Amino acid sequence: MTHTPPKAILLDIEGTTSSIRFVADELFPYARRHLAEFVANNPEVAAPILAQVPGDDPVATLLAWIDEDRKETPLKTLQGLIWARGYADGELKGHVYPDTPEALRRWTAAGLMVSIYSSGSIAAQKLIFGHSIAGDLTPFLSGYFDTTTGPKRDSDSYTRIVDALDLAPSELLFVSDMAAEVDAAHEAGLQALLIDREGGPADIHSLAEVLP
Ligand SMILES: CSCCC(=O)C(=O)COP(=O)(O)O
Ligand SMILES: [Mg+2]
């Protein structure tokens, strides 16, 4: 099938711009280690977030959600707040594959608008790209979307994103490592590519393969 060239690109983070290992082995354990202390030391910030967590012991529920890699909005909000300190003091540096900054530079130089759609909160997205191992990449990003727009496996979320970006669905190209997300984007009429950083069956294996 032939496609018209996209006017904008929408990128997933974990498994697409950045490694799954960084998220699983550095970000999530950092949040796990600091969660109880953050909640205790920041009661006013934490209270409205904890109010969205079911059960009598929200901290235990949140820790279980981290272990299960649940993409729950209150957890993602709290993780973003906790990671801020790790990035500020240099303990965390956002992983990006070498082709990620190269692609961001290439696409923006060609006039393409680049946005992010991740289960990580918008604050967390700005941190990983603002404090990346390749420096501050936020000047190359013009839009950020998270689970407050809707789940990534729901086609309505992609319709909301193209509306927010004032694009026709076919003008936006989404790249993700999750087939269910790519399918949902296709269902909404977007162009979409499945990426596999480990070289398995997929449309692409690097952002260097994405035009122009
Ligand atoms: C913003 S970096 C942390 C990513 C994160 O928390 C996550 O759950 C990854 O989800 P993605 O949608 O980027 O695969
Ligand atoms: Mg992903």
UniProtKB/TrEMBL annotation:
Known pathway: Amino-acid biosynthesis; L-methionine biosynthesis via salvage pathway; L-methionine from S-methyl-5-thio-alpha-D-ribose 1-phosphate: step 3/6; Amino-acid biosynthesis; L-methionine biosynthesis via salvage pathway; L-methionine from S-methyl-5-thio-alpha-D-ribose 1-phosphate: step 4/6
Enzyme Commission number(s): 3.1.3.77
Catalysis: reaction(s): 5-methylsulfanyl-2,3-dioxopentyl phosphate + H2O = 1,2-dihydroxy-5-(methylsulfanyl)pent-1-en-3-one + phosphate
GO function terms (MF aspect): 2,3-diketo-5-methylthiopentyl-1-phosphate enolase activity; 2-hydroxy-3-keto-5-methylthiopentenyl-1-phosphate phosphatase activity; acireductone synthase activity; magnesium ion binding
Cofactor: Mg(2+)
UniProt record, GO biological process: L-methionine salvage from methylthioadenosine
Free-text comment on the cofactor: Binds 1 Mg(2+) ion per subunit.
Segments traversing the membrane: none
Keywords: Amino-acid biosynthesis, Hydrolase, Magnesium, Metal-binding, Methionine biosynthesis
Listed Pfam families: Hydrolase
Enzyme class: hydrolase
UniProt similarity note: Belongs to the HAD-like hydrolase superfamily. MasA/MtnC family.
SUBUNIT field: Monomer.
NCBIfam families found in the cross-reference section: enolase-ppase (TIGR01691)
Function: Bifunctional enzyme that catalyzes the enolization of 2,3-diketo-5-methylthiopentyl-1-phosphate (DK-MTP-1-P) into the intermediate 2-hydroxy-3-keto-5-methylthiopentenyl-1-phosphate (HK-MTPenyl-1-P), which is then dephosphorylated to form the acireductone 1,2-dihydroxy-3-keto-5-methylthiopentene (DHK-MTPene).
Protein name, UniProt field: Enolase-phosphatase E1
Origin species: Sphingomonas leidyi
